[in-house]
From TrEMBL:
It comes from the Bacteria. This is histidine kinase. It catalyses: ATP + protein L-histidine = ADP + protein N-phospho-L-histidine. It comes from Micromonospora endolithica. It is found in: Cell membrane.
Length: 442
């Protein structure tokens, strides 16, 4: 089509709409194409004195779809070879609106995508359409104005109904928002409530453990003080008893000798108890500082072998202290370690009537396992933890002498050395206490 005078703008616009409808664009799109086309046509008539307009149906564009393409070749030169639409909104009506320069000619090109569901247009149908469009007489400017008015009314209607829909959507959105906010507030409140509960619980827990610590400290202090105070009078009783029984003193009757002997042995028992209590209280109050050094297990075992031989007096019981595998060194406190092992060996010898009491050492990765095992009466599983409690003694024949303080003391000391004491035992199958210690100290 030739665009040369004002009147042509209407014709181009009308044709544009008809072609858009013919290739399958939807109603709204037809109006868009027609409007954009008439705007561009008006611009070009003013700036370039008119244009030649070509409609093309591009079958397979860059995006693989059909496009309606409209080229407007200006009659005169475009200023600076560029075309800028007067109204910025025009470009938005189309998918593309550019100036294209090829073989010296500059063309204003605009295109709009044909919807995928538009009917196919085989060549014969295209030819038919072309013939139809060619034959249809162009209407007057008034006709086009009427059509344009109707389109405007339809567009306004569309805008109004969209605005109504938007209002409904907005209302729904606000409603949902209110719901979400309410839920959020509720959750926040619940969370705060839970938090307050947890905080209170922790405060209570802290308070309870402080009380517990204080109680345990005052118990240790009490034990330490009492046993310390008792030591002097008990030692005095022992000394006086020895004096009384001394042959240099006035002679005693047989009965008096027997009674003094009882006093002396009771006092000796009491002193042993007091000493053990003092040891345990010291260990618990953390007042024992291990004296860390490289210790050779073979020398510790050697000493124990020597000192405990005197205690292994039962004819049917053998004390076996194995030789530790070399190199048998670890970082620990030699005196405390010897005390732990002596305690365990002492128990073994005390309770075993037949068989043996054995001390053995084994290295496992970065720990030493020192095991004292015996062939004594053994200990029922339900007593395994209780015998580590202060003053606890298993009821029955193993309640001979003793104080019930040896094992808790041994475990305390082992912990100070970074280790632990574990028991494996069953009634009738002996007992085996294992002291596990880190090779490089705590
Ligand atoms: P004590 O030996 O002074 O009674 P301990 O704390 O050393 O106190 O031991 C607590 C109790 O554990 C003992 O009274 C005894 O009943 C039991 N027990 C300890 N060692 C053995 C063992 N080797 N075999 C059997 N029972 C044991």
């Amino acid at each position: 089509m030739a665009l040369r005078v004002e009147q042509d703008i209407f014709l181009v616009r009308q044709r544009g709409r008809e072609v858009a409808a013919a290739v399958g664009l939807e109603h709204q799109d037809q109006v868009r194409v027609a409007t954009a086309l008439s705007e561009v046509a008006r611009d070009l008539l003013r700036t370039a004195g008119g244009a030649d307009v070509t409609f093309t149906l591009v079958a397979n564009a860059d995006d693989g779809r059909r496009h309606l393409r409209i080229d407007l070749a200006p009659v005169g030169a475009l200023p600076a070879d560029r075309y800028e639409p007067q109204s910025g909104a025009v470009a938005r009506l189309m998918d593309k609106l550019d100036t294209v320069t090829g073989e010296g000619d500059t063309v204003v090109r605009m295109s709009r995508r044909v919807p995928a569901n538009a009917p196919a247009l085989p060549p014969e149908r295209l030819a038919e359409l072309r013939a139809q469009l060619g034959a249809s007489a162009p209407g007057s400017a008034l006709d086009e104005l009427t059509a344009q008015n109707q389109q405007l009314i339809a567009a306004l209607d569309e805008v109004r109904s969209q605005r109504d829909e938007l209002a409904v959507l907005n209302e729904e959105l606000a409603e949902t928002n209110r719901g979400v906010m309410a839920l959020y507030n509720q959750l926040t409140e619940e969370l705060e409530e839970t938090n307050r509960g947890v905080v209170a619980l922790y405060a209570e827990l802290d308070e309870k453990s402080a009380q517990l610590r204080a109680a345990s400290e005052s118990k240790s202090r009490f034990l330490a003080n009492v046993s310390h105070e008792l030591r002097a009078p008990v030692t005095a009783i022992i000394g006086l008893g020895r004096l009384l029984a001394d042959s240099a003193s006035d002679p005693l009757t047989v009965e008096q000798v027997r009674q003094v002997g009882l006093i002396r042995s009771s006092a000796a028992d009491l002193l042993a108890l007091v000493n053990e209590l003092l040891d345990l209280a010291k260990a618990e109050s953390g007042r024992i500082e291990p004296d860390w050094a490289e210790v050779d297990l073979r020398s510790v075992f050697g000493q124990l072998r020597g000192t405990l031989r005197a205690l292994a007096t039962r004819p049917g019981v053998e004390l076996v202290v194995e030789e530790p595998p070399a190199p048998a060194v670890l970082r620990t406190d030699e005196v405390l370690l010897a005390r732990v092992l002596r305690n365990l060996l002492h128990n073994g010898l005390k309770f075993t009537e037949q068989g043996e009491v054995r001390l053995a050492a084994e290295r496992h990765d970065d720990r030493w396992r020192l095991t004292v095992s015996d062939t004594g009466p053994g200990i029922a599983p339900e007593q395994h933890e209780r015998i580590f409690e202060e003053f606890y003694q298993v009821p029955g024949k193993t309640r001979v002498g003793g104080t019930g303080l040896g094992l808790p003391y041994a475990r305390r000391l082992a912990m100070l050395l970074g280790g632990s004491v574990l028991l494996v035992s069953e009634p009738g199958r002996g007992a085996s206490f294992t002291v596990s210690l880190p090779v490089d100290g705590a």
